[in-house]
Design a protein that fits this description.
By secondary structure, this protein is of the alpha/beta class. It contains 7 helices and 10 strands. The chain is 33% helix and 28% strand. A hairpin with a 2-residue loop joins strand 4 (59-64) and strand 5 (67-68). It is globular and about 50 Å long. The structure holds adenosine-5'-triphosphate (ATP) and magnesium ion (MG).
Length: 219
């Protein structure tokens, strides 16, 4: 379970403090599928990065599965991230000039997956995404939808319970975007907690609950 209480993120530029997040309270139960919506600059990515333990915060508490995130060391946080959270980003953030298989194997280099199991697990994830035949292809030679499938395969390969996605369909046409959302719905039905940042009402309609954020506040 995810629980934020009074979480703020403050950027200080010269003498001016800017609240990118302003005392956010938020509870997300295991297995929920959530959309985070709001205008550009509202604080959506900031919130997602904090939820993903990629970014620190200035006030409040964040409890993730009973762990107090604010008091963890960097090394501990990296471990929590690796075992709990998978990320999917708008621009795919794949390693270019490398194959799909290489990209999906990458997160396993940072945990204790035995070397001989990496290929099997990565192929399993690519199979789940419907693109096992693309395994040996350079990701640069793939379509947007195929690349996003590789990115989701990479996000699920460690079998983390939580998936965070920042505008995962932002660079895709509407048909491909729907296909990608069907994949998230399937993962949700398998029990994963899914949190998706999106501008798009249609994309948000795939989710059980919509959280609206404006000027760093949940509204
Ligand atoms: N490193 C930073 N330093 C200063 N201000 C920042 C920094 N990162 C983000 N901000 C500011 O914090 C606010 C929230 O940014 P954030 O990226 O969370 O918005 P967003 O809702 O994801 O917007 P978009 O839809 O455009 O991606 C913005 O006003 C942004 O300019
Ligand atoms: Mg953003």
């Amino acid at each position: 379970m995810i629980n934020l209480k009074g979480v703020s993120k403050i950027y200080r530029i010269n003498d001016i403090s800017f609240h990118a997040l302003d005392h956010v309270n938020l509870e997300i139960n295991d297995g929920e599928m959530i959309a985070i919506q709001g205008r550009s600059g509202a604080g959506k990515s900031t919130l997602l990065h904090i939820l993903g333990c990629l970014d620190t915060f200035d006030t409040g508490t964040y409890t993730l599965n009973s762990i107090d995130i604010g008091s963890q060391s960097t090394a501990k946080l990296a471990h929590i991230r690796n075992s709990t959270i998978g990320f999917v980003l708008q621009d795919f953030s794949l390693i270019n000039h490398k194959t799909a298989l290489y990209n999906v194997k990458a997160p396993m280099l940072f945990n204790k997956t035995p070397f001989f199991e990496m290929k099997k697990k990565a192929m399993g994830a690519l199979y789940d995404m419907g693109i096992p035949e693309q395994a040996e292809k350079d990701v640069l030679k793939m379509s947007g939808g195929q690349r996003q499938r590789v990115a989701i395969a990479r996000a699920i390969v460690n079998d983390t319970p939580v998936i965070l996605a920042d505008e995962p369909t932002g660079n895709l046409d509407s048909t491909t975007a729907d296909e990608i959302m069907q994949i998230f719905v399937k993962l949700h039905k398998q029990g994963k907690t899914i949190i998706i940042v999106t501008h798009d009402d249609h994309i948000a309609s795939f989710c059980d609950r919509i959280i609206k954020i404006s000027d760093g506040k949940i509204v």
